[in-house]
Structures are given as C-alpha cells and as structure tokens.
Amino acid sequence: MPEPQSRRERRRRAKSSHQPFWQADKPYLHEHNIADARFRWLGYVMALLAGAINAGGFFAVARYTSHVTGELSHAADKAYLGEWGIVAAAMFGVLCFVFGAAHSSWVILWTKRQRFRGSFGLSMWLEAVYLLLFGVLGAATLTFGETVVPPIAIFLLCFIMGMHNTVMTIISGGAIRSTHMTGTATDLGIELSKLLYYQRSDNPRLPHVYVNQPKIRLFTGLMVAFVVGGIIGAWGYHTVGHHFALAVALALFVLGFGSVGYDVKIRLKLMLVRRLRARGLM
C-alpha cells in the first residue's frame, strides 16, 4: 500500500533541507543514516548538560530528579509501607517532570504558531531562566533554612529536567531522550544485536533489518556524554555550589542564541519597515 503523499513530501523536503538544526522540525533518526553532524553534536551537548544537571542536582537536593522510573517505584514501595507523605512527594515530583515536558512542548507549539523559527531555542532559554531561579533558591537556603527551600528546589529541578528532555525528544522524533539513558541503552542494545547477528555468515539477511552504525555511534556518544556531564556536574557543585547553575544556564543561552537571535533580528527589521512605511519614507 503506497504511503500518503504528504508523508513522502515531508521526507523529500527533510532530505533536501539544509536549514540549521535549530530551525528544523523533522524526525532525523527515522532515516537509515544520520547525516547532520550538527544535530548529533546538539544531542551530545544536551546529554552532557543533562548529566551535569542530574548529578549536580543530586548533591544539591540529594535526589536524582530525572529518574521517573525510580520515583514511581519508590512511591509504590512507600505506599505498601503506608508512608503516604513520601508517596505524595514522589508523585508530585513526577507530575512536575510531566508539567515541565508539557510546558516546553507548549512553548514550541506556540512559537511555531507565531511563525518563530527559534522555537527550540526559546524553550532552552526558558529552561536557563528556571535554572537561574534554582540557583537563587539554593543560595536562599543559607537565609531561610533547609526545611523550606530544598523541597521547592527539588520540584523545580524535576520541572527543569522535563523541559530538558522534551527539546531533543521533539527534534529527533522521539529517538533521543537527553535525560534518560535507559531508552538509549535499550536502543544501543537493539542495534548491537543486529551487528552481532550479521557477523555470522550462515544467518540469512532479513528484509528491512539493517545494521545502523551511525545510530550505534550516536547512542554510544550520548551515554558517554551523559557520564562526562555527571562528572562535571558533581565537580562543579563541590567547587562552586549552587553557582554552578550559572554555567549550565549560560550554555543553554548560547545553544539557543542563534535561533532566537534570528527571530529577534527579523522582527526588529519588520518593525523598522512598518514605521518607515507609516511615515511615508518607503
């Protein structure tokens, strides 16, 4: 059965597109080969930042705020023991992660409706702002005490991690989860199984089953970047404390600057043209 024309057209346009990755809206990894080096490096950088936030956040709030599976298991264990306060905290953390993901996705959808080309960059900038707020909350701990600020910081960090995971998920069509290495390890294992299967000459070739070496390199790189980011995050928190959030926020601002700056430049030009036209100068 032939696929719909709209899907064929989208694939043709995706292959022929030479837009920078922050302006693209296509599932790169649905193709057999991953050719956009900038996209791959964006995935590595986002995984590195996710590892830094996750590890630094653990030392800040004694919790891995991106580990939704662990939080749900923790809630189930405590529900069995009847510790409902801990259950409520764990479930609220998961909800914050979901709301963060929904917030990031809504920002991307809204900016596309407004014909912004920097929808992903704007989401990164908002995440950076929330990270700065997290750093402020950490500094406020010294003033207001550890009984009030840390719970707020935990839920804010869960929200931030939900946002962080959403950007790469949408850009990659669900193939990359920058904060969750469980899915990445699973996908890597699937690709390695194909490689090992075809190593034996007596195994027949299966239709539509190929060894995707670019994916193997990508998923391996993502896991390495996450670990390196975790080391950097742990070192950063022990070195400068909550001020480490400034460095991560700056990295997100830089990543989103190209696309957001493009939108700002275009809109400033439009405003100038409209004013000149209104004054009869054009």
Automatic annotation (TrEMBL):
Transmembrane domains' residue ranges: 41-64, 84-110, 122-142, 148-171, 218-238, 244-264
Coiled coil: none
Top-rank lineage group of the source organism: Bacteria
Organism from which the protein derives: Uruburuella testudinis
Statement: the UniProt record of this protein carries the keyword Transmembrane: yes
Name this polypeptide is given: DUF1275 domain-containing protein
Record bears the keyword RNA-binding: no
Endpoints of the signal sequence: none
